[in-house]
Every structure is written in C-alpha cells, then in structure tokens.
Amino acid sequence: MEATQSIVAEAAALEGKSAQDVIKWALDTYGDTVKIASSFGAEDVVLIDIASKINPNFKLFTLDTGRLAQETYDVIDEINKKYNVKTEFFCPDGKALEKASNELGPNFFYDSVELRKKCCGLRKMEPLGRAMASLSAWICGLRKEQSVTRAEIKKVEFFDGKPAKINPLTEWTEQDIWDYIAANNVPYNKLHDNGYPSIGCICCTRTVKRTEDVRAGRWWWESPETKECGLHKK
Ligand code: SF4
C-alpha cells in the first residue's frame, strides 16, 4: 500500500499518542499486510500482548537465524500457546550459509565489522527481505533510549519502495516495559532474568553491567555507532 497523503498525515498525528493507539491505527490501516516483527525480546512481547487485545487475529513473524538461544525458542512456544497464534518463521538460505561456513569458518562474524555485517546479511537481511515482500508495514519494538542509533526514531517511518515501519514504543522506558509485563502477566525470555536486557543471536550477545547501555551486550566488541544488524537501517 502506498503512503497516501492522508496516511502520512494520520501517522504524523500519532506522535505523542499511546502504543495502543498506534497499534490500533496500524492494524486498522494495513489489515493483513502489517505484521509484528518479533525477536521475542521484552519490547516485542509487550507489542504482542497489546495487539492481541486490539485484534486477536494480528500477525507476527520472526527471523530464525539458527543462532538463537534455547530460551528464545521456549518463549516463542509460550507466546504461540497463550495468544493462540502461529509465529511465522523466516530462516536463512541453507546453501549460502554452508558456503560461508566452508569458506570462512563457523565464527567469522567475530573477525571484522564487515564480516559481522555479512553474517547479519545472510542470517537476517535476506530472510527479512522475503518476510517484507508481501507487507505494507511492520511493527517493531524500538525505543529511543535503547541506544545512540535509535534516539531520533518516529512512531511511523516511511521509506521509498519499502513497507512503513511502526514504532509504538518510542517513548517507553525500560521500567515501563517491565511494569507492563508484570501487570499483564506476559511471557518473556528468561535470559532477561540473567543479565541480558537485549537478546539476539546468542553468540553475539553477552550480559551487561548495571551501568552499561541496554544494548552494550550486543556485538560487544564493536563501537556503539556500528551496532545495528541492518534490520533498522534507514
Ligand atoms: S547477530 Fe551474530 S550470528 Fe546473528 S546474524 Fe548477526 S553476526 Fe550472525
């Protein structure tokens, strides 16, 4: 669906509105062509709970990189059962992974930023491209306070030739997320109880100290400016 002038105007008016208002607008506006993109972190399970209360037929997908933690698969199962949904999986191309492992070894993503981005390209970006092919919009759990790379995000972002990106939680704090999870008894990834505020592939995620930024444990060997996998690049 094209971003008509009225859609752009409605989207601009959502700044300052609640996550519930933003998700309702997205589900009403885009119908079956909007999905929640979930890596099943704390923000994503909040989005799922809110969406389920607005329209139980909401859709969600995940990128199964093949390097996720068992705890992540466990919470996917819990979410599927609790909300009576079927998470749609998009997985990397097996032949491309086989070629990369044979040429570069099993852990080549630690060797340079370029090779780390190559791995994210194979395991995340290519499957994301297939996931997005039929979408008009996707809903994400980005928050401004998560990192320097996310400080300017808007509730709805439009990009030429790409699905609109809906960010209902831009203003939420980490405390807001956990208060919501507790108040609504939302299933969450148990790695969060063990010092992992942000969870991705287990080989590229470590625990963080209280004084560190919540995404400090993602690609911890890189500088903050490079720490995005490409999924949220403009
Ligand atoms: S997070 Fe790490 S293992 Fe996962 S796709 Fe990116 S580089 Fe590869």
Structural commentary:
This protein is of the alpha/beta class and 234 residues long. It has one domain: HUPs (Rossmann fold), CATH 3.40.50.620. Helix content is 38%, strand content 8%. The chain is built from seven helices and six strands; from the N terminus they run ααβαβαβααβββα. The protein has helices at 5-12, 19-30, 42-54, 70-83, 94-104, 113-132, 174-184; strands at residues 34-37, 60-63, 88-90, 137-139, 156-157, 164-166. A six-stranded mixed β-sheet has the order 3-2-1-4-6-5. 38% of the residues are buried. Bound molecules: iron/sulfur cluster. Residues 65, 67, 109, 116, 119-120, 123-124, 200-201, 203-204, 229 line the site of iron/sulfur cluster.
Outline the secondary-structure elements.
Layout: H1 5-12, H2 19-30, E1 34-37, H3 42-54, E2 60-63, H4 70-83, E3 88-90, H5 94-104, H6 113-132, E4 137-139, E5 156-157, E6 164-166, H7 174-184
Parallel strand pairs: 1-2, 1-4, 2-3, 4-6
Antiparallel strand pairs: 5-6
This protein binds iron/sulfur cluster.
Read across the widest sheet, the strand sequence of neighbours is 3-2-1-4-6-5
Q: Which whole number gives the mean pLDDT?
A: 92
Helix-residue proportion: 25-40%
Going by helix content, strand content and strand pairing, the class is alpha/beta
Approximate shape: globular
Q: Could you name the CATH homologous superfamily?
A: HUPs
- Which consecutive residue ranges, at least 5 long each, have pLDDT under 50? none
Largest sheet report: 6 strands, mixed
